[in-house]
Amino acid sequence: MKKLLLSGLSAAILLGSFNAAWAEDAPKTVNIGYQKANIFALLKYRGTLDSDFSKQGITVRWVEFPAGPQMLEGLNVGSIDLAATATRRRPSLRPPKRI
Description:
Layout: H1 2-24, E1 29-34, H2 39-46, H3 48-54, E2 59-64, H4 68-77, E3 82-83
Parallel strand pairs: 1-2, 1-3
């Protein structure tokens, strides 16, 4: 019984220390890249992410990009933390091939 109690207590202490270590590493600012016509623009204008992050003590810095390649480069070099890009296939106007 003592071994079970001791192992449970040590596991709780160990898990608590991991949680504290992760809390120290939480960012103070999140840099979000967006374009005028993507989902993050809507979230920016509505203030949804700003209010959710501010509850956790994190500020949001919005960085506007003219196109997807520049935003991907921002992710690559680390100037932004989060971005939403999409590729879309152009619709084909030809009828499907028959086999």
